[in-house]
From TrEMBL:
Gene3D superfamilies: 1.20.1280.50. It holds the Pfam family F-box-like. Residues 250-296 form the F-box domain. InterPro entries: F-box-like_dom_sf (IPR036047), F-box_dom (IPR001810). This is F-box/LRR-repeat protein 4. Coiled coil: none annotated. The lineage of its organism: Eukaryota, Metazoa, Porifera, Demospongiae, Heteroscleromorpha.
Length: 351
C-alpha cells in the first residue's frame, strides 16, 4: 500500500482552534481493512481495494485506470443470470451490494468526507463510522462491542456524464472520534464499472473527550439510579389493576385464528417481526412461530448480529433451511463456537 496520512488541506500541520481544545485534520486512507469484492486479483495492484490507500493519483482525470479501486460487478446482469443466489425477504431500505472499510491514522470527529470518483460515479449509497469508544455502561454490558453509526444514506446517483466527481455528501453530526469508515455501494444503475481514487476524511481532534464522556455517563447513571429508587418506593403505594381486560385491548386480532395472523406476518421482514412481537401477547406468540423463519436474511443487519442475537434467534429457527450470513461477524462480533452451534440447525447457509 502507498498510504500516507495527509494532515491539513495540502499536507500541512493541523490547524489549532480557539483555546487549543481541538485541531482540524484532513487525512487520506492509511489502510484498507475489509471489502466485499474487487475487480483485481489478490496480491495484485491493478483494480484492487488497496489502491484507496494514500492520496488521490487520478482525480480530476476521468477514465478506466488500473490504479483505481474497482468493484467486481455493475448493472443487473449478474443478478439475473441462472447462477445468481436468490435474495429472500430483504428489507426494502437495504440497498447495499458491496462495501469497503478503510482506516485512518488519526481518530477525529468527522465534519466532512470527500470521495474521489474517477469512472462512472454515483454508486455510493451509505457511509458509516465505527465507534469503539463506547460509554462505560455499554462496555460493562457488552465487552468488546463496537457500534456502527450511519453518517450518510441516499439513493444512487449514476449518470452517463463522462467526468470525474468529488462526492461530498452531507453527513450526520456525531460526538465521538473515529478512524474507521465503511462505504457501501449499489452499482445496479451504473452503465459500467465504478472506480474510486481516494477517500478523504476531515474532522476535529478533541483532547480528553473520552474521559469527559465517561464522567458524564457515570453522572447520568447515578441520577437515573436515584430516580428509579424513588419511583420504586412510590410504586409500592400504587395498586396495579387486573389484566382481565387484556383481550379487549387486543381489538379484533383476538378474534382471528392464528393461521390468518401468521399469513399476514409472512410478508414482514425480520425487523418488522421483532417490532410486531412487542405489540401484544397474540403478536408475540405468532411472531415467534418457527414457520416464519424457514428463510432468514441477516445481511441487512450485519452491524448488529453477534453471539447474543444468534442465540436469541435459535429458538425460532427449528424449521430453517436457508440463512444469509453475508457481511456478519466482523470484528469478532460472532465467535466460532457460537456460529458452530447455530450451523447444526441450518440446512443451507450462504456465507
Amino acid at each position: 500500500m502507498h498510504g500516507r496520512c495527509a494532515l491539513g488541506a495540502n499536507n500541512t500541520s493541523p490547524t489549532p482552534l480557539i483555546g487549543g481544545m481541538a485541531s482540524k485534520v484532513s487525512q487520506f486512507v492509511k489502510e484498507v481493512v475489509n471489502f466485499s469484492s474487487q475487480y483485481g486479483t489478490h496480491g495484485s495492484r491493478s483494480y484492487t481495494a488497496a489502491n484507496l490507500a494514500g492520496g488521490f493519483n487520478i482525480y480530476d482525470g476521468y477514465g478506466d485506470r488500473t490504479e483505481a479501486f474497482v468493484l467486481r460487478t455493475y448493472g443487473h446482469w449478474w443478478e439475473t443470470c441462472p447462477s445468481a443466489p436468490r435474495i429472500f425477504r430483504n428489507s426494502e431500505q437495504f440497498r447495499s451490494q458491496d462495501f469497503v472499510e478503510v482506516r485512518y491514522e488519526v481518530p477525529v470527529v468527522p465534519v466532512a468526507i470527500d470521495i474521489y470518483e474517477t469512472y462512472h460515479p454515483g454508486a455510493v449509497v451509505r457511509i458509516l463510522a465505527c465507534n469503539t469508544n463506547l460509554s462505560v455502561d455499554k462496555r460493562k454490558r457488552h465487552p468488546g462491542e463496537v457500534e456502527w453509526v450511519t453518517l450518510f444514506s441516499g439513493p444512487t446517483q449514476c449518470s452517463n456524464i463522462a467526468r470525474s466527481r468529488k462526492f461530498s455528501p452531507p453527513i450526520k453530526t456525531i460526538d465521538f472520534p473515529t478512524n474507521l469508515l465503511r462505504l457501501e455501494f449499489n452499482s445496479g444503475d451504473c452503465g459500467y464499472y465504478t472506480e474510486l481514487d481516494g477517500v478523504e476524511l476531515h474532522g476535529y481532534i478533541k483532547e480528553g473527550m473520552q474521559e469527559f464522556r465517561d464522567r458524564a455517563t457515570d453522572f447520568k447513571l447515578s441520577v437515573t439510579n436515584q430516580l428509579l429508587r424513588m419511583l420504586s418506593l412510590s410504586n409500592r403505594q400504587i395498586s396495579v389493576g387486573d389484566d382481565d381486560d387484556d383481550d379487549e385491548r387486543l381489538g379484533y386480532f383476538s378474534m382471528l385464528p392464528d393461521e390468518i395472523i401468521q399469513y399476514i406476518f409472512k410478508f414482514l421482514d425480520l425487523k418488522s417481526l421483532c417490532n410486531a412481537s412487542q405489540v401484544c401477547s397474540i403478536f408475540l406468540k405468532n411472531a415467534y412461530d418457527p414457520m416464519l423463519y424457514k428463510e432468514l436474511n441477516l445481511q441487512p443487519f450485519w452491524n448488529t448480529v453477534d453471539d447474543i442475537a444468534l442465540a436469541g434467534l435459535s429458538a425460532r429457527c427449528g424449521n430453517m433451511f436457508s440463512v444469509n450470513l453475508s457481511w456478519t461477524g466482523g470484528g469478532g462480533q460472532v465467535t466460532e463456537p457460537s456460529l458452530c452451534r447455530q450451523l447444526y440447525t441450518y440446512i443451507h447457509v450462504n456465507l
